[in-house]
Design brief:
The structure holds 2 protein chains of 2 kinds. Chain A is mainly alpha-helical. Chain A has a single domain, classed as Orthogonal Bundle (ABC transporter involved in vitamin B12 uptake, BtuC), CATH 1.10.3470. Chain A contains 13 helices and no strands. In chain A, helix 2 packs across helix 9 and helix 10 crosses helix 11. Chain A is globular and about 65 Å long. By secondary structure, chain B is of the alpha/beta class. Chain B has 2 domains: 229 residues, 3-Layer(aba) Sandwich (Rossmann fold); 243 residues, 3-Layer(aba) Sandwich (Rossmann fold), CATH 3.40.50. In chain B, strands 13, 16, 19, 20, 21, 22 and 23 form a 7-stranded mixed sheet that branches. In chain B, strand 21 and strand 22 form a beta hairpin. In chain B, helix 11 packs parallel to helix 13. Classes of the chains: A mainly alpha, B alpha/beta.
């Protein structure tokens, strides 16, 4: 056993990369749930985004276009969910589960010709001298663009929900769609926009896996990341910064346990493999215990269908 | 009369199977307080929804300030100068006061500036409010202030108020009326909807009466009696509940220092409640909503367990028993929330009858349901309490509020309780159904049951109770004989005006 082979700075840098897919998916789902919609299809949207992004990047040779394609693909799939649940009033839980299964199948079909191909490489952002700073340089300034984009999205979502009027309306719709409707807000439109944003974010998260993290296309490559994203949103009490914390914690433990496995620690591999899930859930449960319903901030209308009767 | 602010001509709106409004016409002058009267289902809410832009009329015209007025959305209505205080508050519990106010405005100023304006307006009109508090933490009276202030901040020309006083203490009602009179003096017109005819007599200049979607009369409420207006609404002579005087009997229910913590983070815990109810007696419990009414009902029905000795029923300690064990003894309860607490909304009336009647009516045998008996019981309730529904197979949700309430109360009364606890038995129920429910409660007491009526409607409590007590922040005042209590005394028992002050009338 050789723990000295684990460099804490490299570890932190690696955890940011490992966490980004989950972070993107979770922050999108947070917005969706804040509007009162429970979309359990995150996994399906992620994997669809993964293949859409991969295909576009390979065909065009541009990873940036790939990410755009991934966002569009994820958003389109989520709009399918949106039309079903918002206009046809189908059950959100069942439709979300179906979306996951549909997305897994659709992506396998679309990805048949892309197995075993290497995507065009995404370069790291060049911060010049900043990247050479001791400690900070390796941790903060040697990542690809999407890591910074994901952080910007978290900050943007936080500011949007807290300070903007549109964010206030979104929260109001998620809190009581009947009251929001009575005040004249278009509940269905707000929710569709939120669903599309959530789908786009999930798509970006999936493409991050297939274009940067892995990078190649394999069937079912998201391997449950969408479900972890869903859990993180709930345990983070629908708060953007806690979603960041939860995602980084999960990514961190994942990277750490891989390193520990490589270092040959005398703990059975199975325990190490399950550790990210257990630790993430434990920490977030402890954080959200002992609080009233309002502090938990669960949107009161979450998962309830809205129909403007009378 | 001068130029009208709002005229309505021939407004018609039909829904599949019902004509909600049929050729409705009336006018409101600037600075006039106009009452809209009618039973549940008479079409009052459809009418105000059309004025507020939530529903589009099928036919008819409206003019506002002399120009045609066809609001397609509430935004358009607000921009024209119409504001509305809703019956079921259109508030968001997890948002704070300022955010709630901002959501009801067209272009709200930044939060800090808005908070300052909320403070200013609330002081001018004597409605103190802290803009930073969560609405979920506020009492019903305070929530209504949020709605009113949201409207006032937009300087409306017409303010629509749908049942505004049902949750207020008499002192709070006085203060609200001062506020409304001040608005009226400033030239704001008010369209006022209420079941409380005495209020309409003191406040309103004109009244339009709706029955089954049609205007059936207009009157000056100051010249009419409450009874004559009620009869115009119902279309028949109204029967006033009455019963013979009788000496109360044995103590049935005895609470000794009952203290229960509230299960709800926004609730009020009960503190050391002492109470005795005798057979043949109606004890009225008043108080502003959110002072422990729901908790008291839950403690009495058995939903919240208490120490065994805190609740005695016919000298037996039952504090630790659950609802079904208490039902077996004859202690029954009907909670306030009709849909979701007293009745399961999507289950049929038969199933709902089964839910509480299973034990006392022997509707279950060896773990199996006895459907014919359950249906018979439901039919008995429907017949005995004049519940208007096509039959017991209909879902509870499909009944109007008054009819479902008659069903809920009837279901408990027909189980021959030794003690019945009801919370808000006539909340949102029209005059004739309310009279029927009150009469049934009085008949039950006359037959020797002990009855506890928890209500925020003081007129109701004065009408039917023998003794009166008030809940204030989880404490119960000492009960007093209801006869001869003055409104001021009651208000003091209820804790006064909850730190409100009278509007500084100009």
């Amino acid at each position: 056993m050789d723990l000295s082979s684990i460099n804490p700075l490299v570890l932190i840098a690696a955890l940011m990369v490992a966490s980004t897919p989950i972070l993107l998916a979770a922050i999108g789902e947070l917005v969706v749930e804040k509007s009162g919609v429970l979309n359990l299809g995150v996994e399906g949207m992620m994997i669809t985004g993964a293949i859409c992004g991969f295909a576009v990047a390979v065909e065009s040779g541009s990873p940036a276009l790939g990410f755009v394609g991934a966002a569009v693909g994820g958003a389109l799939l989520s709009l399918l969910f949106g039309v079903l649940t918002q206009y046809l009033l189908s059950n959100q839980v069942a439709t979300g589960l179906a979306l996951t299964l549909f997305g897994l199948g659709l992506s396998a079909l679309m990805g048949q010709d892309y197995v075993g191909i290497k995507p065009p490489a995404t370069g790291d952002v060049n911060f010049g001298p900043l990247a050479d700073l001791p400690v900070l340089g390796i941790v903060l300034f040697r990542h690809d663009l999407m890591v910074y984009v994901s952080l910007a999205i978290v900050a943007g979502v936080w500011a949007f929900l807290k300070y903007s009027r549109a964010g206030l309306i979104l929260r109001a719709v998620g809190e009581s769609h009947d009251a929001a409707h009575a005040l004249g807000y278009k509940v269905v439109h707000v929710r569709l926009a939120a669903i599309a944003f959530g789908g786009a974010c999930a798509g970006l998260g999936g493409a991050y896996l297939s274009l940067i993290r892995v990078p190649q296309w394999t069937e079912g490559m998201t391997a449950g990341a969408g479900w972890i994203a869903l859990a993180i949103v709930v345990f983070a009490s629908w708060k953007p910064w806690r979603v960041l914390l939860g995602a980084y914690l999960f990514g961190g433990v994942t990277v750490l346990q891989l390193n520990l496995q490589a270092a040959g620690v005398a703990i059975p591999v199975e325990y190490l493999s399950m550790s990210p899930y257990i630790i993430t859930i434990l920490v977030l449960v402890i954080m959200s215990s002992n609080r009233g319903r309002a502090a938990l901030a669960a949107p009161a209308a979450l998962g309830r269908s809205f129909h403007a009767s009378s | 009369m001068t130029e009208a602010l709002l005229t309505i001509e021939g407004l018609t709106k039909a829904y599949p199977g019902v004509v909600a409004n049929d050729d409705v016409s009336f006018r409101i002058a600037p600075g006039e307080v106009h009452a809209l009267l009618g039973e549940n289902g008479a079409g009052k809410s459809t009418l105000v929804k059309m004025i507020y832009g939530l529903v589009r009329p099928d036919a008819g015209r409206m003019t506002f300030g002399g120009t045609a007025f066809e609001p397609a959305t509430p935004h358009a209505a607000r921009a024209t100068g119409v504001a509305m205080v809703f019956q079921h508050f259109s508030l968001f519990e997890a948002l704070n006061v300022a955010e709630n106010v901002a959501l009801g405005m067209e272009d709200p100023p930044p939060q800090r500036q808005l908070a300052r304006r909320i403070r200013e307006v609330s002081e001018t009109y004597g409605l103190p409010l802290d803009p930073d508090r969560l609405v979920g933490d506020l009492s019903a009276g305070e929530r209504q202030r949020v709605e009113i202030i949201r409207c006032l901040l937009q300087d409306p020309k017409l303010l629509i108020m749908d049942e505004p006083t049902s949750v207020l203490t008499p002192q709070e009602v006085d203060i609200l009326f001062e506020t409304l009179r001040k608005l009226q003096a400033e030239g704001t017109s008010i369209l006022y909807i209420s079941h409380k005819l005495e209020e309409i007599k003191t406040l309103c200049d004109n009244a339009t009466i709706l029955r089954l979607g049609k205007v059936v009369g207009e009157c000056n409420p100051r010249e009419e009696s409450a009874r004559s207006m009620a009869e115009m609404m119902v279309g028949t002579t109204l029967h006033t509940p009455s019963r013979d005087e009788k000496e109360p009997g044995e103590v049935v229910l005895d609470l000794a220092a009952l203290s229960v913590a509230s299960a709800n983070p926004f609730g009020t815990s009960l503190r050391s409640i002492h109470l005795e109810v005798r057979s043949g007696e109606i004890l009225g419990i008043g108080g502003v909503a959110g002072n422990g009414q729901d908790e008291l009902l839950a403690a009495l029905s058995g939903e919240t367990p208490a120490p065994p000795e805190a609740i005695k029923f016919c000298e037996q300690e039952i504090g630790h028993l659950g609802p079904n064990a208490r039902r077996r003894f004859g202690l029954l309860a009907a909670p306030e929330e009709r849909l979701g607490h007293a009745a399961a909304p999507d289950m049929s009336l038969t199933e709902n009858a089964l839910l509480t009647g299973a034990i006392r009516e022997q509707l279950v045998a060896g773990g199996f349901l006895r459907w014919p008996q359950a249906q018979g019981f439901a039919e008995k309730i429907i017949a005995a309490f004049d519940v208007r529904t096509p039959g017991p197979a209909n879902a509870a949700r499909s009944l109007s509020g008054g009819n479902l309430q008659k069903f809920v109360i009837g279901r408990e009364i027909l189980q021959r309780p030794a003690c019945l606890v009801v919370n808000q038995p006539t909340w949102g129920v029209d005059a004739s159904a309310a009279a029927a429910i009150r009469q049934a409660l009085m008949d039950l007491a006359a037959e020797g049951a002990a009855v506890i009526v928890i209500s925020q409607d003081l007129d109701e409590l004065m009408e039917i109770s023998d003794r009166f007590a008030a809940l204030n922040e989880g404490r119960l005042s000492a009960p007093r004989a209801a006869k001869g209590l003055t409104v001021d005394e009651i208000g003091l028992m209820m804790g006064g005006a909850h730190d409100m002050e009278v509007a500084h009338v100009a």
